[in-house]
Design a protein that fits this description.
Two copies of one chain form a homodimer.
Chain A: H1 9-27, E1 32-33, H2 35-42, H3 46-56, E2 60-61, E3 65-67, H4 68-79, E4 85-90, H5 94-101, E5 110-117, E6 126-127, E7 130-134, H6 138-144, E8 149-152, H7 156-169, E9 173-176, E10 189-192, H8 195-209
The structure holds a DNA duplex (30 and 30 nucleotides).
Chain lengths: 229, 229
DNA sequence: CCCACTTTGAGAAATCGTGCACAAGCGCGG
DNA sequence: CCGCGCTTGTGCACGATTTCTCAAAGTGGG
């Protein structure tokens, strides 16, 4: 078998965008899309779309475009969305609760199959279809249900400890919502979603828009500058 | 006055990490930190820390390190955290609700001052200290309370429309939680937080860890590869 | 006061990502 | 069967980011 194609990280991060754009396109009975159109839907430029897709293989047809369903299938396969991934959420506070009920995991492919919390008071509590289980049972839960992906939705102080336990239990991909840096051993993937950080980044650019605001705000019409990616 | 220092986007995205690390350090009565130590806390490498901080100015002391409180102040100022930013959340569903109650906006600097929803059934409903208001009142709300930052927590289908209304109302920074691409005019900053995308990225790397799993899972021990940033 | 040691700040090289430009390939009409 | 128009795939130049490296600058001990 051929060696595994190396796909740049930046490209991987955009594949989900294309995936979503294609899903919408597919719903509309359109047979093919051009890189131009796909770029518009995904909010990037056409050259980037073509380059990104070329890493997956030559799936387009010159003069025509990409077959929507075929490309959709290829990207699905590449992203590992052809089968379901069971997911465990640790931390059933405000955020964990919202995540558990969140229908918008958009494309399927992910299914929350366990909710875990350290607080004995929460164990047994029902959330939707699930019942909150004990943190100490993680190894059994992860093992029995063949869970590979864990979501950390605890307070910052508990995040590292929880991540460690997830890894010990056999989890190899972690999505961290706690506002803190978490370290994981090699071989374990980690991504983070951090509200405070995002707001602070916005704040940085926002601040630069108002040239001389000293305390009150809205000194002048926003200068048309600074675009955040 | 000197021209505005240009700070690379990648650096801006890391400033919040340093900020948080410094906050923790400051709590511990430590007077100075080295780039080495700061790097450890922020989960990056020391050279990067020094380069990043050097964009802000020469705030360190050779042979000693950085004065924690002084650096903290400089970064605060740079990020615009020296004053409060009022924030409006649009969409009071599961997610909006959780965000409204979320205490973990970590460092202060941001205060949710308005909740808005399009559903007449939700208007008037209380969430914490706030009362849900009508989407149509956005211009007044944003104007009166001098809000510059808006959070979109609606379903994907409504996101673009809501973003447009936010912009019309005078918002110039948007944080989008809806799983869809949103376009904004120049001069408006936009960042997104996308659960589905993050999970799909994890899935991509996760998939590559299990060499020959065809349907069942756990074919072998995870190969120690693929690190996601 | 000088020396050894530590740590920053920044030049320079290496790597990564982006966008342009265009040749190559494909479908369609004549 | 040929030529035209359209769109992909990709080489290449450029810009951004990361990493390496080391001189400069400060501290503390003798």
């Amino acid at each position: 078998m051929a060696e595994v194609r190396r796909i740049p990280e930046a490209t991987v991060a955009r594949l989900p965008l294309y995936y979503r754009a294609l899903l919408e396109t597919s719903d509309q009975q359109v047979g093919t899309v051009s890189s131009e159109r796909l770029a518009e839907l995904a909010g990037v430029n056409a050259a980037k779309v073509r380059k990104d897709l070329s890493y997956l293989g030559s799936y387009g047809t010159r003069g025509v475009g990409y077959d929507v369903d075929f490309l959709l299938h290829q990207i699905s396969r590449e992203l590992g969305l052809t089968h379901d991934w069971p997911v465990v959420i640790v931390g059933v506070g405000n955020l964990g609760h919202a995540l558990a009920n969140y229908r918008g995991f958009g494309a399927r492919g992910f299914r929350i199959v366990a909710l875990v919390d350290a607080d004995p008071g929460k164990i047994g509590q029902r959330v939707g279809e699930l019942e909150v289980e004990a943190l100490d049972d993680l190894p059994r839960i992860v093992g029995d249900r063949e869970i590979a992906i864990g979501i950390v939705a605890t307070p910052a102080a508990a995040a590292q400890e929880v991540a460690d336990r997830l890894v010990d239990a056999g989890i190899t991909s972690i999505l961290n919502f706690a506002p803190t840096v978490v370290a994981v051993p090699p071989g374990v993937s980690l991504r983070k979603v951090d509200l405070a950080t995002e707001l602070q980044i916005l704040s940085f650019y926002q601040q630069r828009k108002v040239p001389a605001a000293d305390g009150n705000g809205r000194a002048a019409a926003a200068s048309p500058r600074a675009r955040v990616r």
